[in-house]
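Q: Predict the assembly, please.
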Amino acid sequence: MIDKKIRIDPIKNGTSIDHLNPGTALEVMKVLGLHDTGIVTIGMHLESKKFGYKDIIKIENKELTQDEINKITLISPHASISIIKNFNVEKKFEVMLPKVIEGSVKCKNPKCITNIESVETKFHIITKSPLKIQCHHCERHMKKEDISLL
Amino acid sequence: MKPFKGRDIISIRDFSREELIYILKVAQKFEKQNKPVLKGKILSTLFFEPSTRTRLSFESAMNRLGGKVIGFADAAVSSAAKGESLHDTIKVIEGYCDVIVLRHPVEGAARVAAESAGIPVINGGDGANQHPTQTLLDLYTIKKEKGKITGLNVGFIGDLKYGRTVHSLADALSKFNCNLFFISPDSLKMPSDLLEELGERGTKYTETDDLNKVSRYLDVLYATRIQKERFADPIEYERVKHSYVIGPSLLRKTKKDIIIMHPLPRVNEISPNLDKCRQAVYFKQAHNGVMVRKALLALVLGKVK
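A: Predicted assembly structure:
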């Protein structure tokens, strides 16, 4: 008999992060600091009509800040976010990279002033696909694989 | 073109081709002009790292235009030695002067200083990142000696991996449709991300480890120092160090009107025998720094329209 059970239950209030690249849910959990903040449900390597496979995270009683959304975008640029109110989707949108990312990404250059003095990092997006960003301060270019989030 | 009055000079990337050409035109006007247009103005030279040419040519430029100079040439005598942040240092010093020239070993320091200060900041070199006034004086030298910049064949030889002067000048020349030739041992090749950028802009470039293969095409040869400490393998250093020594014999294989440039200091990459050849312009190049720096000081202080 085929099991047709819903794998992830709906949430009453909170945020659903869908279409995360498969295998990235735990990284998103980590950068959003969701390990001990409340009820979180995650699904990994679920089938996706759009992308083949995807991860999904549902966070109860939390709305994301723009900074948190920017971080998700850097990990998984095709993610979509739904704000859930009383079991209904109140708002749904796909994440989009801003032109400038401030305070979220660490510069890979150890000689950059942001790694030496108390200066907030700032990066300009050069290309979105493939992702290439440039440090506002030391002007180094970074690709997706170079990015580590603060 | 954005007005220059009050503007910071931090990175060559901040300037359009039109703006670069304009700065060079103003520098040309200052070849013979030493009117005291900066009388009553004070320049602070904050040199957290040693420098001879940059600091002294800025001081010369300011003095020649009637301004005064204060500053330090050693970080040990500044408050940074007591742990003061660069932001705080700049906030204090901006009250003492009208314009700041900063040299700092930390990359991005000049950008932070510019964003902290309410007066113009000129980057005199921030680590391995940018040295825009060097690039401007290089462009000025090429224009002065060759009569143009557009479309020239420019070769770079030596340490292309770590040399910030090479990176910035190549970037600037890509705005002038120059053909670039990068001549270096494999271990000191141009960084791939910079080559990628040049490619994206449609700049034509050639990489080789043999100067003889490309020397006949060159209008300009820009040499840089090969530093022994950059080599993991000392045998590799011994192998390549002599292959990049430029002497008068090279001129038999090049165009007669090629110019040889070098940001200096040199060690042994250019033979002193070349100094008397008319093609050797590296000392003139260093002198051109004063004209370019006079132009920049006058521009950012609003004394040239």
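DSSP finds two helices and eleven strands in chain A. The radius of gyration of chain A is 17 Å.
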